[in-house]
């Protein structure tokens, strides 16, 4: 008997049968559609990068200027820049990078008390080739400067201290139906230390007071006229935020309405009387008249924003936006009338349409 090797206890010498995987589906494997980059898109990408726009802003503008079935995203723009543009134009990759000199200058400007919205312009003027946006400056300050230099923080909402006396006074004033702006003024007069603003009062109310005293949220006085108008606007398909704006415009007296006040009234009063309004789909309703009007405006070469403004002026109800138009045009109108896609591409927000029309007349 020939020994091959030691057998561990509990170990079987039988060969294990291989696990059979599920049969693979027949037919060619479906590949993911890629975003098509044309010379026009690449040129526009470089222009926007020179302007210092972020990847999200670049993707959004590409989708607006070059609408189609395939949508550009953050990863689409990032891969194109790193794989092609930065290799041909390395100066673009170094435009918005923070070095020690720029970071030190940022801290100096904060120490001098320069407003954050002006810092971006100062840095772009002082450092050649540096094109940073206001959003990038705010992100840099919040992520790197404030954690190390908390003394530079100028946010009044963080420095304002609430005492038990101030909180009691806040509740008393709110019980009287006084607005947040007037409450802030009263608190500044009675308690001179600190600078209380309308935003600080609103934040305190919604974070702490309303959870303990929800009846104070109903300090907004509802009348029969307001309830009737609320029902009409809800039936028209407007959002709670839009309804609050309409109510403040039509009924300016007293406390201002906001999203939470309108939503609370809808849930606890309106939807109980008319539950069909709650189940109503608040999507933008497309009618044949609206679709034909969009096609006419596309033939005129108007942008999505201008088309949305025209639709909102001519047709009531829910408001049209660029996103709603992009979805309808790319999925429906361009498939039925592809010639409009070419006309829309001729439209340039920088004002090149006049030059194109002049060239056409010259060729004739």
Overall body shape: flat
The overall average pLDDT, rounded, is: 76
State the low-pLDDT regions, or none: 1-5
The separation of the N and C termini measures 102 Å
Number of domains: 5
Class of secondary structure makeup: mainly alpha
- Rg, rounded, reads 30 Å
> What is the percent of helical residues?
55-70%
Largest sheet: none
Q: What fraction of the residues are assigned to beta strands by DSSP?
A: under 5%
Characterization of the model:
By secondary structure, this protein is mostly helical. It has five domains: 39-93; 100-154; 158-217; 220-277, no CATH class; 288-349. 59% of the residues lie in helices and 0% in strands. It has 19 helices and no strands. The N and C termini lie far apart (102 Å). Mean pLDDT is 76; it is low at 1-5.
How do the helices and strands line up, and which of them pair or pack?
Layout: H1 39-50, H2 55-65, H3 74-88, H4 90-93, H5 100-111, H6 116-126, H7 134-148, H8 156-159, H9 164-175, H10 180-190, H11 198-212, H12 224-235, H13 240-250, H14 259-273, H15 288-299, H16 304-314, H17 322-336, H18 339-345, H19 353-363
Helix pairs in contact: 2-3, 6-7, 10-11, 13-14
Looking at this protein, list some descriptive labels.
0% strand, mainly alpha, 364 residues, flat
């Amino acid at each position: 008997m020939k020994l091959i090797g030691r057998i561990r206890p509990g170990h079987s010498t039988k060969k294990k049968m291989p696990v059979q995987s599920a049969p693979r589906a027949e037919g060619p494997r479906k590949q993911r559609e890629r975003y098509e980059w044309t010379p026009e898109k690449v040129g526009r990408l470089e222009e926007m990068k020179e302007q210092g726009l972020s990847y999200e802003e670049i993707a959004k503008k590409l989708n607006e200027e070059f609408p189609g079935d395939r949508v550009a995203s953050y990863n689409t723009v990032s891969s194109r820049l790193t794989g092609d543009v930065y290799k041909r134009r390395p100066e673009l990759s170094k435009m918005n990078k923070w070095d020690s000199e720029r970071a030190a200058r940022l801290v100096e400007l904060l120490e001098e008390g320069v407003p954050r919205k002006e810092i971006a312009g100062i840095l772009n003027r002082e450092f050649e080739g540096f094109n940073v946006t206001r959003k990038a400056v705010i992100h840099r300050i919040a992520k790197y400067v404030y954690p190390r230099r908390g003394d530079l923080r100028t946010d009044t909402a963080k420095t304002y201290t609430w005492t038990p006396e101030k909180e009691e006074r806040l509740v008393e004033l709110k019980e009287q139906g006084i607005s947040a702006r007037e409450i802030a003024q009263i608190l500044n007069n009675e308690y001179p230390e600190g600078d209380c603003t309308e935003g600080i009062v609103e934040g305190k109310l919604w974070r702490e007071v309303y959870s303990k005293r929800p009846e104070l949220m109903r300090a907004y006085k509802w009348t029969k006229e307001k309830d009737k108008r609320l029902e009409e606007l809800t039936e028209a398909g407007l959002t709670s935020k839009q309804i609050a704006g309409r109510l403040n415009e039509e009924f300016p007296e007293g406390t201002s309405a906001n999203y939470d006040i309108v939503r609370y009234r809808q849930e606890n009063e309106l939807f109980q009387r008319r539950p069909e309004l709650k189940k109503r789909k608040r999507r933008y309703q497309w009618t044949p008249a609206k679709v034909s009007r969009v096609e006419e405006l596309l033939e005129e070469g108007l942008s999505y924003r201008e088309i949305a403004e025209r639709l909102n002026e001519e047709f009531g109800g829910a408001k049209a936006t660029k996103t709603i138009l992009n979805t309808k045009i790319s999925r429906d109108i361009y498939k039925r009338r592809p010639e409009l896609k070419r006309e829309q591409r001729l439209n340039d927000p920088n004002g090149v349409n006049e030059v194109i029309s002049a060239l056409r007349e010259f060729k004739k």
